[in-house]
Amino acid sequence: MKLGIPSRIFKVFIIGITTLYLAGPLYGMIDFSTKPLGNEGGRSLRAWKAIGEQEDLMSSISVSFAIAIIVMLLLFLLVVPTVIWVHLRLPKLRRPLELICLLPLAIPGIVIVVGIAPLYRWISIHITESPISLAGVYAMLILPFTYRSLSAALALVDISTLAEAARTLGASTMRTIFGIVMPTIRSGIMSGVVISLALVLGEFTISSLLSYDTLQVVIYLLGREDGKIAVAVSLAALLFVFGILFAIPTTKRQRAILDADIA
Amino acid sequence: MSTSAYVQLVNLSKHFGKVRALDGLNLDIAQGELVALLGPSGCGKTTALRALAGLQDLDAGSILVDSKDITFVAPNKRNMGMVFQAYSLFPHMNARENVEYGLRMKAHRSSSSNRKKRAADLLELVGLSTHANHFPHQMSGGQQQRVALARALAIEPNVLLLDEPLSALDAKVRTQLREEIRRIQLEVGTTTLFVTHDQEEALGIADRVGVMRGGILEQIAAPAELYERPLTSFVAEFVGLTNPLPAKVSGGSAEVLGVQVPTVAGSITTGSGLALIRPEWFKVEASTSGNAKIFAVSFLGSTCRLTIDLADGARIRVQIPSAEASNLGIGSNVKVTLKSLPVFVKGV
Questions:
Q1: Predicted ipTM?
Q2: Residues of CATH 3.40.50.300 domain(s) within chain B?
Q3: Which of B49, B65, B90 to mutate: most A Cβ within 10 Å?
Q4: In whole angstroms, what is the distance from residue B275 CA to residue B344 CA?
Q5: What's the pLDDT tens digit per position in A217-251?
Q6: pLDDT value at position B325?
Q7: In total, how many domains does chain A have?
């Protein structure tokens, strides 16, 4: 449909305002992180170059990524198959499962910390002191977002018939879930992954209160010493997640699935 | 029970709450035979097919294929090819990969080149060799169902199960694909169970048609026998058009419209009843003294359908060759009698 001139102006206006709203803070971060100190003239990439020199920062980045990878594995091997299983075989449990998955959104972070602090104390004494153990609590925190995107994707296609077709062709239940259902709802899984990744890399409350040095905690500590480096790291992390977000639906097959979902 | 039966459904029962989907169903299918199950919604035909596929558990009864009891065998171990009513191609695979899928799942996997060759052969069989690289969303509904048929046949199934595979297609494609399914089934020789609510589809494709009601088979017979010699009034009325006319029965024959005709088994044996007469069993002659009047005429090509009001006020539908209808117009007086064919008479 072709838009009239007033509508087009309105469209450009809305897009312009939205872009400014989103790009403004990013510009502010670039500006601040490259501003010279004191009376030095010109722009400086000192803060960006210094990122690599911060040992705490580097180790916290690798820790946060390790946590993210474990959370993704738990998502793929546990959460996704469970949601699919309930959807296919135990439809009566869909509502209770949805309720359980939404709970982490309803319970404030501080309450969760109070609840799990004794458990983590026990873990740090008896199992490991590594922040990687945070993957357990993060896998729970991502449930509301992954559940919603998975159930939306499952509702778009006739998963039961596809699963039955795979079964009659000789596929076991596991092969049906991993080989047929998961690729079919890949768009839903991927959006769950992106949101989860953003959440894991950006989580501060729980890791800080449990005294683990994750990326956000280190950025916060760094910000108290050198704000410019902290802002440069924040911006880099943000751009990284953006990059993943835009990189996801690129291959031909994923487009085919997205088209099929819409059709 | 026939010993030559390849598939045997013995006393199958399944209740969903208070609904009896299967109520002691017995059905035998010979090897290479195509049996259609026909019936109204909720008669249990799809439940029976899904039970044979292993997708529906049963309250009682047993299922035998090739004399082996498979009642408790998982669906992925039964080697049944199934085509569903809803489009069921895997959306992330192209046509060839869909057809190959069942071969890849088999315990003794064939080599990649063998699989490719078999998929190519089957796509050719269903007339879609040029669509091997197309994804489901790039194909029409009819093409998707053909690929689904190729996919089901690729695993050389013990039984091919067709669950209303044509009902989502438009009329023309439906007729074409129906004929193609029959051609392929005869060519491949796979024992087939076809479920449909469309009597034309069932009569046009099957070696035998089973009419189901309330979870049991009312009658199973060759299409012509089912049409000409129904055993129950439900079958007579469900399969094809019938005109109910008053009849007096005695000694194995009935008097209908003043004509004595034999009755079929299952009819009442004495007294008054309603004879169920097919539209093409009437004889119509133009006659000024005739006690019936033509209400409407529809020309159907080689045949003509007449709607006729009888003297007693009953309105009947009659089908005669167009050549015999040339002098019959709306409002003409006609004399209506019957050909001497056996009829079903139900009690009133």
A1: 0.84
A2: 5-228
A3: B90
A4: 6
A5: 888 888 888 888 888 888 888 888 778 777 765 44
A6: 85
A7: 2
